[in-house]
Amino acid sequence: MNRRKVCVIGAGVIGLSSAVRIQDKIPSIDITIIADTFSPYTTSDGSAGFWEPHLVNPDQSEELRKWGQETFDYLLDLVQSQEAGKLGAQLVSGYDFSIEHHDQDPFWKDQVIAYRRLEQKERRFHPKNKGGIFYSSIMIDVKSYLPWLMEKFKSRGGKVQFGTISSVNEISDKFDLIINCVGVRAYQLLNDQNVKPIRGQIIKVIAPWIKHFYVDFDGAEGTERYILPGRDYVILGGTGQEGNWSTDINQKDKNRIWESCVNLVPSLKNAQKIGDWVGLRPGRTKVRLELDEQRGSSGCMVIHNYGHSGAGVTLHWGCAGNVAELAHATLTTLSSRL
Predict the structure, then answer these.
(1) Global pTM exceeds 0.85
(2) Which among 162, 158, 186 is positioned nearest to 5, based on CA atoms?
């Protein structure tokens, strides 16, 4: 099986983790990552690295719980490891005012730590005295995490190639198995009409006094409000604009994000702004993780792993494990035909 050649298309958190977990499952496998964007320029690099199943379809909750739990446990191991500081892996606790009532409890409530309803005196933390929840989750600095994964991948003999793939058929005669982790580009690559961008815009600020996260929705469609304290800076967001392909900084969005977050936590008024970022989350009706035996003109099989919306970091390790199992089973079947 180790003589078989595998290609992973995409070098974001989904592609890199898939490649590493395939190496875990099949040591010494001949595996190559092909991408036209690498860290620190991927969509994943702009992610807050906050574990929460965001913008996903609850109809897929059984699979999401499985993938999310495996990822949470893995990230918690990193938090408790000697690598935690290097990776910015940390427990973070805080308030979510978007889940105001008991009947809104999410499917993932038992996966985070110490999930509970807010006490009456905690309502004062919201300008409209809203109820909500308090829990502890995990954050990781994705700009540090992706190079760490890449170093692990290369140290095991993994190969990296720069290039833009316009069709799976371009490379299907060179590999036995292709892992498709192209994110929102699946819309063009596969003509997947279920894929659409969910545009996210954020502001990065220096505010070391912010120790808790805050999540809220301020009512307008396509808008979000969150304050997420990472290792090096605090992220203020955001937007969730479906179908918007623009990667330009929108001043109107920037002003709304700033005013909305300052309204929620007034001390942010004195925070130092250090940057803005826009990225296109790979929205899809459901996460697509499956073996597609029909793709590839030369008979090369394809495993799809894309459409994670705003939950790429939240689901990545669990999904990658699923991909590794599929890859092992597929290559075992191919070898048995020899």
Answers:
(1) yes
(2) 158
